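Example record

The entry below shows one chain as it appears in the dataset: sequence first, then structure tokens.
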Amino acid sequence: MKILVTGGGGFIGHHVTKELLEKGHEVIIVDTLITGKEENIPDAVTFYSMDITDPEIETVFSSEEPDVVIHLAAQISVSYSMKYPQEDGKVNIIGTINLLHLSAKYDVRKFIFASSAAVYGHPVTLPVSENHQLMPTSSYGLSKMTSENYIQMYHQSKQLPFTILRFSNVYGPRQTAEGEAGVVSIFLTNAAENKPIQVFGDGNQTRDFIYVKDVANACVRAIDRGDNEIVNIGSKTQLSINQLIHTISKVSEKPLSIQFKNPREGDIEHSSLNHNHARKQLEWDPTYSLEQGLLETMEEIQRDRRRSHEAGREKSHSI
């Protein structure tokens, strides 16, 4: 099938694209490369440097006629969304509406959407199932919830099939070491560079960390499974930030220095997703342990540091 991946130059998009190509699909990527990277885009894909909010993106739909849209492009920072809610809404809501309109117009067979555990807000019960009330505490969570509502409306009014995937905290190779979403990458990078780790809050707050290759597998499975369903994609495990740091120290075989900071606005205290529905609808379960995922991520960071060091050395020799 021909699959359009928005945000294909990003962290998750790279891994989704890789799995799609391995399964023989034809892939079209749309990305501004503002946060995505050109190195994340394989030569085997058709690439458009475009903004999902731009009406000109219709040319992609008219010329490529994709069978499926996997919508990963987003503004992903909670703190940024609280500071600049207009920009967050423009990308996450208006961008999604634009894609939904074009998907319906050009008879896309399915619209797969990357949502977030942020739609739940502060959970009443843990682990959180899909029927938990939606009470987002950030502009980011609200923009994801609003996008979900538009997707369901387009299904009702335009018969556009969909699957909504609510991701927990995704981590893995190629994740940018910045922002609250990249906490694992930040911690591992700091460990590699012998820098202190900054923790916002007391470190007892919990998250559900899910490895990016498991997430990519869920996205690809949703192409022919889970029609018109909303499913959680998580590990079902609550892990405190302090426990994460301990595990990173164990995997990296380094003692880590920690600096505690004040909590950030919009952050939730505890999070863990029940993925039983994904098991039923997508025939999906996470396969990577935390230690295995951290080790692969750390090895990628170390390779990147070696490449950067070698490139810097070659540059200095050429001067």
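Notes for this example: Residues 226 and 281 are 5 Å apart (CA to CA). The two ends are 49 Å apart (CA to CA).
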